[in-house]
Amino acid sequence: MAQARGLRRSISVTWASASADTLCVADASANTVDAITGPFQAGTAFAALAKDSGVASLVGTVDLTAGSSTPLLMGVKSPKGLLFSPRGQ
């Protein structure tokens, strides 16, 4: 996990690989795994921000140049893990 400046807690960060078609998100509080289907561009950074991080709970892409994020999934209670899965797996 990476520590983001200005946030009170850790966030989960991962990058899409060339073969990634599904992003799996573990929600620790809801005891669920959500799947977001792609395709995703290789090298794109994704972050999971839990509600205890000081911002709204979400999963989104991260613009590493601008330092901003674009939400993909909101309303998750406590996203704690991100995993990319290739097509059909």
Number of helices: 0
Distance between the termini: 24 Å
Computed structural class: mainly beta
Question: Can you give the mean pLDDT?
Answer: 79
**Total domain modules:** 1
Summarize the helix and strand pattern as letters: EEEEEEE
Strand order of the largest sheet: 1-4-5-6
Based on the structure, what is the oligomeric state of the protein chains? Answer: single chain
**Which stretches of 5+ consecutive residues score pLDDT under 50?**
1-8
- Record field, number of beta strands: 7
Radius of gyration: 12 Å
Coarse morphology: globular
Strand content: over 45%
Tell me about the largest β-sheet: 4 strands, antiparallel
Notes on the structure:
The chain has no helices and 7 strands. With 89 residues, the chain is mainly β. It has a 4-stranded antiparallel β-sheet, with no helix packed on it. It has a 3-stranded antiparallel β-sheet with strand order 3-2-7, with no helix packed on it. A hairpin with a 4-residue loop joins strand 5 and strand 6. 17% of the residues are buried. The N terminus is likely disordered.
Structure keywords:
single chain; 89 residues; mainly beta; four-stranded antiparallel sheet; three-stranded antiparallel sheet; 7 strands; 0% helix; 49% strand; disordered N terminus
